[in-house]
Amino acid sequence: MWYDEYLDRIDTALADEDKKLALRRAASTFLLKKRDALGSLPYLDYYRKRLREVKAWSIDHIDELIKTFKENFEALGGIVHIVSTKEELANVLRKVIGSGKLVIKSKSMTSEELEVNKQLEEMGNTVVETDLGERIVQLMGCRPSHVVVPAIHLTKEKVADLFSKVTGERVPPDPKAIVGVARRMLRDLYMKADVGISGANAIAAETGSILVLENEGNARFVTNAPPVHVVIAGIEKLVPTLEDAMLIAQVLPPYATGQRMATYLSIISGPSSTADIELTSVRGAHGPMEIHVVLVDNGRRRMLRDSRFKQALYCIRCGSCLNNCPIYQLLGDEFGYRYFGGIGTIWTAFTEGLKVAAPLAYACTLCGRCKLECPLELDIPEMVKSLRDLLIKEGYIPPPLSFAERSIIEKGNPMGI
Ligand code: SF4
Predict the structure, then answer these.
(1) pLDDT class for 396, splitting at 50, 70, 90?
(2) Which domain holds residue 146?
């Protein structure tokens, strides 16, 4: 069943010429930009190797880092919640946000993983994505299809049609015009919102600091304008120091978008406050009065305990592996679930379960391009092979492979002749 369903989805994806065109356009731009950026950053090799060491150490000392971060962030006036499952996250959101609120969000893969929008809407809140790509897929009613560029599968013509329908005015298929419309639509909401939700690119335990990288400037509004800011992040985002977090700021942009540095880099260490009047500290000067950080497990500790998959937790979600993956280039979001490509397959197995990950593990060709593109040199093909071993033990074997196996045993050849 799982196998046939996936074949149907593949057929649909392969017939979608628009999607293939959009993916091709994006991939060639990404590859050229990345090549230029890597060539212009002579110390990048050092940073990425050091980053791998930092991530490896951090994952091995995760409990210590969680404890240190909680103590330090709460001493600054923030609140830290630690949750294991989607249901536990829902309880925190119900307590902190409640219902009837306007919630604005900046891009966060962890909140995609945990279906935060759906949860908040079911509680009676209005949720508005502010990252342009996320807003497009939200209005379109589809899922993001790339960790860095959520609307990568849509052509400018499709997006222009969508915005024309939403605004009731003719929006031309011109990225500049589309961005102008999005800017107009979102501007007021930043000041009206009750709560801002963001993810984190890294969390520094020693100083209790959240690091958020972005280009659009929307995350600045989301994390700053509403009175309450909620950060939803996986426990793997923790590193010991701000200096370690900065390694991510240096490595991620060239590999993700071919930039030497992201346009905006926000470091948030507790709620806004002022002591300008008689040195009396008052919360919420211009930024949020309350900041909550929700640290999420949702399968990460199981990944951590399994030496075959532990390194998947080092991933910084730059998406570089996707941009040169032959299967992702053909299937886009169908080579993934909430996370994409080979690395996404491993994450899917631990966050969604083996059944969801099974067709993805067999869609992978094990060609190894992802490993070559990864700044942390994660051995994704080896992890996918280990996942296949697990899948076979659990009975998730594609029918053609079962047939070939039986034929070899019974007739000495895989064709059953
Ligand atoms: S596996 Fe490597 S290349 Fe792929 S998103 Fe993660 S860090 Fe980037």
Answers:
(1) very high
(2) 60-301
